[in-house]
Amino acid sequence: MKIEEMIAAKRADCSGCEACANICPKKAITMTRDAEGFAYPKIDPELCIRCGKCDATCPALNFKAKTVDALPATFTAIYDNDKVLRRSSSGGVFTALSEIILSEGGIVFGAGYDKNWHAVHTSAKNLDELENLRGSKYVQSKIGDVYRQVKSALKSTKVLFTGTPCQCAALKHFLGGDPENLLTVEIVCHGVPSPKLWESYIDAVGYAHEITYVTFRSKRNGWGGRGLSFIDINFSDKERILSANSANPYGKLFLRNVTLRPSCSSCKFRYPNTQSDLSLGDAWGIPDFAPEMFDTRGVSVVFIHTDKGRNFFERMNLKTKPVRFADAVRNNKLFIMPTVADSRRKKFFAELAKSDDWLAVLQKYFAQDETEFRKESGKKTGTIFSKNLQAILEPIRQKFPKKFLVVSSTRDRAAQESLVNFFKQKIKKSALYFLLPKEGGKFICREDFSGANFAFKDLDALNDFVKRFGITKVRVEKDLNFGDNTAAVTEWLKTCGLPTKLFVQKN
Ligand SMILES: Cc1cc2nc3c(=O)[nH]c(=O)nc-3n(C[C@H](O)[C@H](O)[C@H](O)COP(=O)(O)OP(=O)(O)OC[C@H]3O[C@@H](n4cnc5c(N)ncnc54)[C@H](O)[C@@H]3O)c2cc1C
Ligand code: SF4
Ligand code: SF4
Ligand code: SF4
C-alpha cells in the first residue's frame, strides 16, 4: 500500500507524524489540514519523482508489532528542584535529562510554543531556550523540518529528541537506525487534539487581550497524584483563565476523548510497540502504590526500554523508587492501550466543520451531561486494558519454571511488602502469587513480578486461576485468618492437590 492509498482508505492509520514530508527529496509533500483541523500529507504530482522514499519511511505503512520477553524497569522519580518542578507537568525528569545533554554541548528537541502560542517542535541549545519546551501542550505539535534538523545535528553532537510515541517512531524511521549519540524519549500519550481547534480556542478567548502565558498543567493547586490537572492562561491586562482542565471546555473535551486525532484511538505506538529509549508520564495513583514517593510538587513515572535509556536514567540526579509495572499502568492505562474515542466525536467535528464559531460548539458539548458517555467508554477501556495487559504478561509468565501460591492473611500494606521480600529472598527464579483476603469476604491474588491483581469472588474461581496459571506449589501462613472464609480456605488447601507447606515469617 502507498501513502495516498492509505490516506484514502485507512485515514485513521496516519498519525500526522510528518516523516514522509521530511524524507521527500523533492519537497513534494505538504502537510495539509482537513476539516477537523488535523494535518495529512498531500503529494504534488508535478514535483513527485516516484522514488518511493515516503512509502518506505512511513511508520504506519511499515509497522511491525513487537512482543517482549521482559517488562521494562519501571520507576517513580522526582527531580528535587522547586523551580523546575513548578514549571514541569510531572516530576521534572525531562529537564533532568536535558540538563545532561546540554552540559555535554548537545541539543534538545521537543514541543514548544511559537509566538502565537501554537504548538511546534523546536530545539534548545541552552537552559534559557529549554524553558519553552518544558510542560505538556495538549495539542498536536507541528514537526516542520525537525527530523532533518536532528539528522544534521547528529553529525556533530549529542541529541535528545522528545515527543509523542508516534513522533519518536517517525524519527527512527526517518533516520533508518538508532545513532549512538541520539536519545529518544516519549511521553505517555493520551492522544492529541486538533491544532486548529486549539488555535480557534485561544483566538476566541484571547480576543481583545494579549496572551502572555499558557500552561495546561498549572501547579498552583499542587499535583494531586490522582489525575486532576489545571489549565492556566494569563493575559497582559491581568485577566486570567485558571481552572481544572475538567472544568474548561477545551480541557474537558480533550480529557473526554472528543477532540483527538482519529489515529489516537487505534494508536500503533504504545507499549510494547514503543521505539524510544525511555517513556515519561505522571505517576498517577502513586498514593496507592508508592505513598512514600508522593510529593505535591509532582512525580514522574519512567519506563526504561533500552540500555542507553538506563544509562541516562542512572546518570540523572533524581529521587527514585522502583515500582511494579502493573501498579504504574493501572492508573495510566493509556501506556498500553489506545484511547477509546467518545461516541460524540464524529458529530462534534461535523458540527465544527459547519460552524464559524468553534468556541460555541466547544461550549455546547462541554455543557452536555456525560454520565452515559462515561459509562460506555469506561467499560470499553476496562475491557481493552485487561486484555492488553494479559497479552503483554502471558509470554513472560511462560518463562518462569515454577509458580508459587503464597496464602497469607496479612492485611497491612507494609507487612505485605515485607512478606513479599521474605519470599523473594527464599525462592528465586519463580513467579510468586500472593493470595490475600479482600474487603467484603472476597479474595485477591497479586502477581509479584508485574503487580497485576486478580480478584476472586469464591474459591471455584481460585481453582480456575491455579489451573490457568500453572501454579506448582503452595506456601501457607501458620494460623491463617481469612475471617468468615477461614474454614473454606483451609478446606480448599487440603483438596487443591498441590504440594503445600506451612511458613512463619521471620523478621
Ligand atoms: C498531549 C499529551 C498527552 C499526555 N498524556 C499523558 C497521559 O495520559 N498519562 C501520563 O502519565 N502522561 C501524559 N502526558 C505526559 C505528561 O503530561 C508529561 O509531559 C510527562 O510526564 C513529562 O513530564 P516532565 O515533568 O518530565 O517534563 P515536562 O517539562 O512537563 O515535559 C515536557 C516534555 O513534553 C513534551 N511535550 C509537551 N507537549 C507535547 C506535545 N504536544 N507533543 C509532543 N511532546 C510534547 C516536550 O517535548 C518535553 O519533552 C501527556 C503529555 C502530552 C503533551
Ligand atoms: S515518491 Fe519520492 S518524490 Fe514522490 S512524494 Fe514520495 S518521497 Fe517525494
Ligand atoms: S509518514 Fe506519518 S504523516 Fe506521512 S503518511 Fe505516514 S503516518 Fe502519515
Ligand atoms: S495517541 Fe498515538 S497516534 Fe495519537 S499522538 Fe499519541 S502516539 Fe501519536
From the spread of the alpha carbons, the general shape counts as globular
* Backbone CA Rg: 25 Å
- Structural class comes to alpha/beta
Nearest-integer average pLDDT: 94
Number of strands: 19
Order of strands, main sheet, comes to 5-4-6-7-11-12-3-13
Q: Total helix count?
A: 19
Helical content class? 25-40%
Low-confidence parts lasting 5 or more residues at pLDDT below 50? none
End-to-end separation: 63 Å
Instruction: List all distinct small molecules, including ions and cofactors, that are bound in this structure.
Output: flavin-adenine dinucleotide, iron/sulfur cluster
Domain count: 3
Report the major sheet.
8 strands, mixed
The share of residues in extended strands comes to 15-25%
Topology overview:
Layout: H1 3-9, H2 19-23, E1 29-33, E2 39-43, H3 53-57, E3 73-78, H4 82-87, H5 93-103, E4 107-113, E5 119-124, H6 127-130, H7 146-154, E6 159-163, H8 165-175, E7 182-187, H9 195-205, E8 211-215, E9 230-235, E10 240-244, H10 249-255, E11 278-282, H11 286-289, E12 300-304, H12 307-315, E13 319-322, H13 325-330, H14 345-354, H15 358-366, H16 371-397, E14 402-407, H17 413-426, E15 430-437, E16 443-447, E17 453-456, H18 459-469, E18 473-477, H19 486-495, E19 500-503
Parallel strand pairs: 4-6, 6-7, 7-11, 14-15, 14-18, 18-19
Antiparallel strand pairs: 1-2, 3-12, 3-13, 4-5, 8-9, 9-10, 11-12, 15-16, 16-17
Helix pairs in contact: 10-15
